[in-house]
Amino acid sequence: MKKLIVGAMAVAMLASLLVVSGKIQGQTQPQRPAATGDVPHKVGLIDMAEVFKDYQKFKGLRDELQAEIEHSDNKARAMMEEMKKLQELAQSGQYKQDSAEFKKIEQQLITRKGELESFRQVQQREFLRRESEIYKTVYLDVQDMVRMYAEKFDYTLIVRFNRSKVDEAENPQEVIQSMNRQVVYHRGQDDITPRILQALNQQYSRAQQGG
């Protein structure tokens, strides 16, 4: 089981506790305006691969694209089936090779082949464009959510990392990749992946419900 994701209420309670704590400290210690350079760094970590994998909006957009790809494949198969019938008709011996009917079938085959190749090329370019747009849209969603979270909880830097552990690697290549990670150690609370993912899915759910 993945560890429990902090809910919106818990986040709000945490924020209020931080405010109260700040007031108490202000009563016992003299407050001094801190220079910009004196602000302590607070680093957070996020596993973007896991966010993309479990973000419901990403799944929904990919499912829509997959449905369109399947529809395109069905259309291409229908075009191929039509070509197959023309090919069978040309090879049936029903028409002489120098007859007008045979030449007409031949020309239809050439035309259908060109149409199929053109259709496939156009669809491939369009699907690649759509897929890149999906990744861009989702990345910007995550970026905005990370920015809001960082500003709310005073993070000065958010770094991408891989949450999986070295001892979970199953082959030598994965072991080497795990050992080459930039983040060697982090505290559990530094990993903001679950909280960002929860916030994104809640936001997407509200948008789907029209709220």
Task: Give me the secondary-structure topology.
Elements lengths: L7 H21 L14 E4 L1 H7 L1 H35 L9 H53 L4 E4 L11 H8 L13 H16 L3
Parallel strand pairs: 1-2
Describe this structure in words.
It is built from six helices and two strands, in the order H-E-H-H-H-E-H-H. It has 211 residues and is mostly helical. It has a single domain, classed as 2-Layer Sandwich (Protein Binding, DinI Protein, Chain A). The chain has a two-stranded parallel sheet. Helix 2 (48-54) packs parallel to helix 6 (193-208), helix 3 packs antiparallel against helix 4 and helix 4 crosses helix 6. The longest helix is centred in the middle third of the chain and has 53 residues, at 100-152. The radius of gyration is 29 Å and the shape is elongated.
